[in-house]
Automatic annotation (TrEMBL):
Start and end residues of each YHYH domain: 140-246, 247-284
Matches recorded under InterPro entries: YHYH_dom
Species of origin: Leptospira kobayashii
Superkingdom, natural source: Bacteria
PANTHER family named in the record: UNCHARACTERIZED PROTEIN YBCL-RELATED, YHYH DOMAIN-CONTAINING PROTEIN
Residue ranges crossing the lipid bilayer per the database entry: none
UniProt name for this protein: YHYH domain-containing protein
Length: 296
């Protein structure tokens, strides 16, 4: 590590206590994580979900941008749209699937780490949620060549999670625990738009502000193998000036077009207004493609 990178890290750490600044620092941490991860060999039996992260000692590892103790390795055989963007998880190719393993602890401060954690930050929402985040052992097996399904397979159905974000966190659908609607449950989201369910599994239903803020950023991959983006589509260019809010999304939050990651028109999802949830959500009620599997 050269002197410049060390100085960048120290500057990043100094700003780490300021929430607004932390989001800007994210880019330098992502760049470092890319250097650290992109050439790794992370496949096979050696890949694990790592140690159990303890909330009482959880801190951010500036070199990876992930919580200390979180395994972060993206195998070199993965396509660049995954290995250049995903971290805070292990990912590799296995046959006709991508496998992701995640401890699923947020690389942000959160009220749900509990008041005794170094990563505690009071939330601004006031809805009741008695749960705290806890370290998981999620394993996703996701088709590497996604295929169109019936569009009628529910995104609920007792699934542990329906996708994984670029920072290794679970994606949930547009539903809340009955009888609440998600609009009510949103009143329990932490300052980065996530919360844990009753076994401590932290997840995002809606805006994940660590990774997307009304932009075209890649959010993650869904269990059916299709990518999911923020509210905008990137017009298949890296410049943000031509990003646009798609007007042709289907009821599953998706459409088929090129992006910077897919040079031929490919189906993908977007964060968008969901009529069931009555707020913006990442996913709707059904999968577009044939889904893989997930365990914990
Ligand atoms: Zn939830
Ligand atoms: Zn799009």
């Amino acid at each position: 590590m050269n002197r410049t990178i060390i100085i960048m890290l120290l500057v990043g750490l100094a700003f780490g206590t300021c929430k607004k600044k932390e989001k800007e620092d994210n880019s330098s941490l992502l760049a470092l994580a890319y250097v650290a991860n992109s050439s790794g060999t992370c496949n096979g039996s050696a890949a694990t979900t790592g140690v159990t992260v303890s909330n009482s000692t959880a801190t951010l590892d500036a070199s990876t941008g992930c919580v200390t103790g979180v395994t972060t390795c993206m195998d070199a055989a993965l396509p660049s749209w995954i290995k250049d963007n995903f971290k805070c998880a292990t990912g590799y190719v296995s046959g006709s699937n991508y496998v992701f393993k995640s401890q699923n602890v947020p690389n942000t401060k959160s009220s749900y780490y509990g008041t005794s954690s170094p990563l505690y930050e009071a939330r601004t929402t006031t809805g009741p949620n008695p749960n705290t985040t806890s370290s998981q052992k999620l394993v996703y097996t996701i088709p590497s060549a996604p295929s169109k399904g019936t569009g009628t397979v529910s995104t609920q159905g007792g699934l542990v999670s329906i996708g994984i974000t670029v920072n290794g966190l679970a994606i949930f659908n547009n539903a809340a625990a009955p009888p609440d609607t998600l609009a009510v449950e949103a009143l329990t989201f932490d300052n980065y738009g996530g919360h844990p369910q009753n076994t401590g599994l932290y997840h995002h239903h809606a805006g994940a502000s660590k990774i997307t803020n009304n932009d075209a950023n890649l959010v993650g991959i869904i269990l059916d193998g299709y990518a999911i983006y923020g509210k905008k589509c990137d017009n298949a260019t890296t410049t943000t000036t031509d990003d646009f809010t798609p007007s042709d999304l289907d009821s599953l939050h998706g459409h088929t077009t090129k992006t910077t990651h897919f040079t031929t028109a490919t189906y993908h999802y977007h964060l968008t207004y969901d009529s069931t949830a009555t707020i913006d959500t990442l996913m709707g009620s059904f999968f577009y493609g044939n889904k893989g599997s997930v365990s914990n």
